[in-house]
Amino acid sequence: MKLVTFIYNNESRIGALTEDKRVVDLNYAYKALLESEGKVRSELIAEAYIPADMEGFIEGSDDSLSKAQESITYALSKDAAYKHPLIHAFDSVKIDAPVRKPGKIICVGHNYREHIKEMGRELPENPVVFAKFANTITGPQDDIPHYPISDQLDYEAEFAFVVGKKARNVSREDALEHVAGYTIANDVTYRDIQRRTLEWLQGKTVEGSLPLGPWLVTSDELDNPSGLDVRLTVNGEERQKTNTSNFVFDVQELIEFLSNLMTLEPGDVVLTGTPGGVGVARDPQTFLTDGDVVRIEIDKVGVLENKVAKTELANHDNKVHS
Description:
Helix content is 20%, strand content 30%. It is an alpha+beta fold.
């Protein structure tokens, strides 16, 4: 199943993408199904199992997934009369980042062998971990804002997974049972800001620096995160190309390692690292500029494409200042 967060009538909703690229509103479809069965308190039941937000849906785990499938079948097989539309044309709604308010965004650095080599480092004995915050998330149909704080804006294609079940001290063998699904991320980085201290956080947490999406492919559909081709282009020119079989630490190892440090919660997002070919490591160095189109393709997941847009700074009153 491909799960999307979409905007309709200025409201954020959760949906499922059909094979013919329509979006089924899962919350309304489940309400309509319950009402057709004569269930009392159908609205409360629907909100419990299939709320309109992705984070709430993920918390419902397998129960929510099974009821979502029933809802999709009902919406597609019935010309159901309901007070809200159950199905939308893909082009009639705005697709947002699948997860907007994760409790944690955990990033892994130096996790592809070729990227480690180009950065002149040794293979790490343990995963290199840092963080981004929810303010960085932007949608698959939004621009990448380029603020005038640096001219070293760089791209990083990343395969990402979303935690589906609480995980603490999880073994490698059980790790994938705790994954809700997979998506694509671009860990946009302001390189000079990243490197002005030993710690990377400053260059990684600038507003809007994490394009995410376009959807979440559930783990029942994508049950093996290894062997997936990853490719990034800028204005059609290939800059990064790898396969997830080239990980130093694969998804299972990362879940085991991270869950021994902290409790992973449903909705947490983990970025698994970027391959070789980043702009800062090219000769000559090549950074993103206004109007550039960055496209990331990952096998069995999809395509994430965003344009870079020069953006002025604004204060908390939304007044532009220099």
